[in-house]
Design a protein that fits this description.
By secondary structure, this protein is α+β, with helices and mostly antiparallel strands. It contains 7 helices and 10 strands. The protein is globular.
Length: 222
């Protein structure tokens, strides 16, 4: 019912999550980020508590160990899809056997993409390729601030939607970005709860946030 990206950029010390769905207010239920700790998602037959539990666990150990605890925290793990990407180190994900097809996840260095009730596995492949293009193309510079990084995450979602996305359609989307280091203060938290074209509206909100950040930077320099 949802497709999601968790990603980090060590060049800018930013980490974030973005998600889209044919469900109302997906951002309220699916993603979370914690400064200096990581990004997490819980979806499919969503258990919202898994987000906080995964971030708590990854703060003290590895992502693989955190994900391995899901059956201890949840009595129906086969219905859940969850992922966590720590501020440093490998990420991990879980896709339960009873999540709505097509469902699955891909874990790469600095990236996790996951989805369920998708039109097919090429949705996740397109999302991964869109993210990797920013790392592999020398003409693409690192996203310099939280809003620019958020825009990159929204572009990853757009690539997934262009390849089918949620097979029911579209309704809501959200993006969150914070600092991967404890000393940073970057923050973006934007949601589109109900819209005919949620990704286009989310991109518009990200552009507004970028304007706010530029004004704030100018004020600090004055």
């Amino acid at each position: 019912m949802t497709f999601t990206v968790l990603a980090r950029d060590g060049r800018t010390d930013l980490i974030g999550a973005a998600t889209a769905s044919k469900s109302l207010a997906v951002g309220n239920a699916v993603i979370d980020v914690r400064r200096g700790v990581g990004a997490a998602a819980s979806q499919a037959w969503t258990n919202r508590a898994l987000r906080g539990r995964l971030l708590d666990a990854v703060a003290a150990g590895s992502a693989a160990d955190a994900v391995a605890l899901i059956p201890r925290w949840d009595d129906e793990p086969a219905l859940r899809q969850a992922a966590v990407l720590p501020a440093a180190g490998a990420g991990a994900a879980h896709t339960g056997a009873d999540t709505s097809p097509w469902s699955g996840h891909l874990v790469e260095s600095d990236l996790i993409v996951a989805g369920n009730l998708l039109t097919g596995e090429d949705v996740l492949g397109a999302m991964r390729d869109a993210w990797l293009a920013g790392d592999e193309d020398p003409t693409i510079t690192p996203a310099p601030d939280a809003a620019a990084f958020a825009a990159r995450l929204v572009a990853v979602l757009a690539a997934g939607e262009a390849h089918g996305g949620d097979r029911r359609g579209r309704q809501s989307a959200a993006v969150m970005v914070t600092s991967s280091g404890v000393a940073g203060d970057a923050w973006v938290d934007l949601r589109v709860d109900d819209h005919d074209d949620p990704l286009a509206e989310l991109h518009r909100l990200v552009e507004l946030r970028a304007s706010d950040l530029r004004l704030d930077l100018s004020a600090r320099k004055a």
